[in-house]
Fold these 4 entries.
Entry 1:
Amino acid sequence: MNKKVVLSNKYFLAKGGERDCYIHPNDKNKVIKVVHRNEKHNEQNKLEYKYYKYLKKSDKPQTHLTECFGFINTNLGLGLVYERLRDYNNKPSKSFKNYLEEKFFTKEEEENLVYELKEYLFKNDILFIDVDLSNVFCQEIFQNVYKLIIIDGLGARRLNWRFYVYLYSKIYTRYKISKQWKKFYNNYLKYSTYL
């Protein structure tokens, strides 16, 4: 690892339950997630890195996930570097929740986006565990063409035996995907203006 990247409030983007997210000071197209809790935590960076490595090794398409670039040394500790989602016009992408609150899409457009994400998760056995709507961004890939991208909450909640069961037991994995999808869909329904 090279010399430390210095993070400060100037680059701060968001705070999660376990990690803070910063714009990479040397590359505005990347973000760095750093654990902010000193007490016991769920090792989210380690867990997600292992899960991304597993997906790559298994040749799973990552069309609906942000890219993960690996670890970097920062003044706040070890950080995990991800792609910072940007729209085709180079503006930062926004969360799906923001779009729903703005009543941006028609009912059909909303349903198509949600259905496409569901197809991707189920077809490729992708474990999307933390199904909060703020963990899904809506990227404009061409003018007026959108896609949902998961930016956080993959793999498992904790780096324990369950995580490995998820990876190697198709039956358990599919059960978990189905269970979490129902939660995600219910979250979506709370914000959809068409119900």
Note: Residues 170-191 form the longest helix (22 residues).
Entry 2:
Amino acid sequence: MQFEAILFDCDGVLVDSELITNRVLHGMLNESGWVLSEDDCMRIFIGKTVRSETARIESETGQPLTDAWMAEFYERRNARLRAELVAIEGALDAVQAVHQQLNGKIAVASGADKPKVIMQLDKVGMLPFFGAHVFSGHDLPRTKPWPDVYLAAAASLGIAPRRCLVIEDSVPGLTAGVRAGATVWGYCPQVNAHSTPEQLLQAGATHVFNDMADLPRLLAQANQ
């Protein structure tokens, strides 16, 4: 079966944002009284929204997770991202190539809030390739690991999920793609990967690759 569309996760797949965001979150949680390491913070929150761990945050800090706290987190996070964010190596050229290969049938389906996703894609020069086809789990009834955001992205392109290829780097996101009925490939870079190839395969990935620059070639081979 040929793939007619690609649905990309954003953080860790297109943009190198996860360590930046994690450092901000880690710092604010420690300030609030939850003393944990950066590695533990990444392990707990990777592929999830902050609010999905509200109960644990409130238990560990002894304080409610307020809208004001979240607003400060977003402000600090976005300032750091604007200053430090870069694209995943090879991702911009890959996006441009697969956009041409698939006649523009590509979309972003992220678990992050949409203003962040738009800002990041714009900063690294990818936004024109996706246009209106940028979706956030925050805007849907359920976010990852549920399939809603991938189903919305596929519908926006007019392509059945089973004919879509999803690119993901986290187990919650990969699970969402599988539940949507898409084929999912795991992206697992050789440096700073947050899941192992084995974990991605166990979660349902049919293929794992470690260099985003290889994606156009892999797509062409799959669609022969």
Note: The mean pLDDT is 96.
Entry 3:
Amino acid sequence: MVREAKQEDLQGLLQLYLCLHETAVSEESERLHAVWQQILGDPMHHVLVYDAEDRIVSSCVCLIVPNLTRGLRPYGLIENVVTLDGFRGRGYASACLAYAREIAIENHCYKLMLMTGSKQERTLEFYRRAGYNAADKTGFVQWL
């Protein structure tokens, strides 16, 4: 079942992020909990999780960004799309992305964007099947 993350989901989410690019779970700290509270308290920041077998197996983040163009309509941004290795190919990430799309529509977004660092064709095809394309925009990143 896909849903919005709750306070008690922090450790499960941090474990899941090890399947992204993290090499270790963030240490317990005041800063960790302050960031988590900031995320949970922001009505424009949606951490979506998919529960299966009594744990979080997939997730994505959907940010709604206020905007002064397009008739003042916001846009959505997707980040941190991830599924546990043994749970891939079961539709969990697709369900998270579909839920993010619903949030974007409810917020009257005019577009929903995501970027991926993956060059794997299966990952790119997954995003194409989910309705995203790489032809409309060119993405650039500046690491800070």
Note: The helical segments are 10-16, 30-41, 92-106, 121-129.
Entry 4:
Amino acid sequence: MPLPRRLTAFLFLSLALFLAACATPRPEDLPRPTQSEIAALADEIHALGPNIDAAEAARAAAIAYEYPLRLAVEYQVEDPPIIHNIKVNQGLKPRGLCYQWADDLQARLAQEGFETLELQRAIANSQSAIRIEHSTVVITAPGDSMYDGVVLDPWRNGGRLYWGKVTEDDAYPWLPRQEVFASKRARLAAR
């Protein structure tokens, strides 16, 4: 006798989530960044403008790679990001929503008091009815547009840093956070 469609779909989804959770390394076991990975990010940050200090770019790159690994342990990340989000929202995990990763990474980078780098925030999917919103940190030269910067996203890989040029990030259509917030305020005011 065949199983009802809903039950089949539920079982399939449960199995997929179980297998995905089993494939996620413990936060303590996340791979450490190599010196060449850190150097590549430092080079990308240094290339943001002629006045970027190479030592600041190197420090920012090292922190952007290392600090999220510490956060993964603090957040008790043991699942893919979406599953971890569900656990945070249910109160089963302390932190680890994308905006919390971005808040904490931005705060840590800001402690450095960079003089030749600027930290900005971006949000993706704010106008999508299907995809969930996603927040991140963007590093730029002072005064530059967010679109000229580099995305520093520790959430999407559960503590392993994703980075790339904002305009080349095919996974997320980034918008400046202040524009997203202004749009939301305008929609609320129009009600």
Note: The CA atoms of residues 1 and 127 lie 44 Å apart.
